[in-house]
Amino acid sequence: MTEHGRHGTSTSAVRRYADLLWDAVLRGDEYTAVDVVVDALRDGVEAETVLLDLIGAVQQRVGAEWAANRISVAQEHAATAINERVIGTLALTRGRSAGDLGRITVACVDGEWHALPARLLTEVLRLRGFTVDYLGAQVPAAHLITHLHRTGPDAVALSSSIATRLPTAHATISACQAAGVPVIVGGPAFGTDGRYARLLGADAWAPDARTAAETLRGGLPAPANPHAQPMDDLPHLSDQEYTLVTRNAPTLVATVTEKLRERVPAMAGYDDEQVLRTAEDVRHIVDFLAVALYTGDPDLFGDFLDWTAEVLTARSVPASVLAPTLELLGAELRDFSRAARLLRSAAAARAAIDHGAAPASPPTPGADDAPLHRTGRPA
User: Fold this and answer.
1) What's the rounded Cα separation, in Å, for the pair 17 and 82?
2) Is 132 buried (19+), middle (13-18) or exposed (0-12) by CB count in 10 A?
3) I need a labelling partner for 92 at 20 to 30 A (CA). Which of 159, 230, 284, 289 fits?
4) Beta carbons within 8 Å of 222's beta carbon, 6+ residues apart
5) Higher pLDDT, 196 or 7
6) Could you read off the pLDDT of 333-354 as tens digits, one per residue?
């Protein structure tokens, strides 16, 4: 018996086309990628399935392959660009829908460059009968609010992939609600279970585009607390630790990077580029520390460090460098009770892992030997 997908298309056919699309984007072959999507539609694969189970699945694979160091940042960027063009082709082939289910504004949080999930949601909503204003990547809150006053949508769908954007997301959610427009949020930044969506007072959260479309079809109620302020949701912010760590981040990064030279002997031979990249990666750690202070959730910081260790290991860089970095940060922030406690716990956890881990294998020929290499997600 043939297994079938959501709309009767065989799962094997969907997988076959997904594999063909993956092969095309990996080779940077835009024309073949377009042909794959067109062929899938002609073969009876629903447009929504093409969007989410072909294009969306391939994009998720791109991220996983980058993290595992099996594709480069350049390949990741090229694949994303091709997927964007493929979505555009699909949109042109299906034509314009009536859009009688209501008007939705879809946007990415300011500072969020990962726009493809929002674009996928946009096309799914259009397929389902919504009128959608797609505003794209990193939309400043002030411009978003101006747009809401001008167009009067039924809801805003806000997307973010990186947790460091949560403070900005919080301000944007509050601003939209103050304008009388409810907000549904989605993306990895809000947690796999939507915990940060609830923490920041969003009106709804969806783990994927299909759920978001179904939720919006039912309609979102008017914001319950349109005049809420960040301190109302997060009273621990009164200690000012998040604000002070964020404000002093450049100094923290410079100091820790310099002191790492004493803790990591290999840094004595680094050129300017290697030192610069190390400082960039220390900045990622400081940024995730700051957002953990903002949310009051130490697991956010711990999960980031675990992910970072996996990325470092995939690049043949010893993850043991994380522990001294955390210790140095802790020393600089010893007067910040929440930050110091979080850093002590994280450093102890990393040291325990390092102590029990097998010796790291030597770097592969040509591997970058900076102590922290590409801890941030691909842009």
Assistant:
1) 15
2) buried
3) 159
4) 180, 182
5) 196
6) 999 999 999 999 999 999 888 8
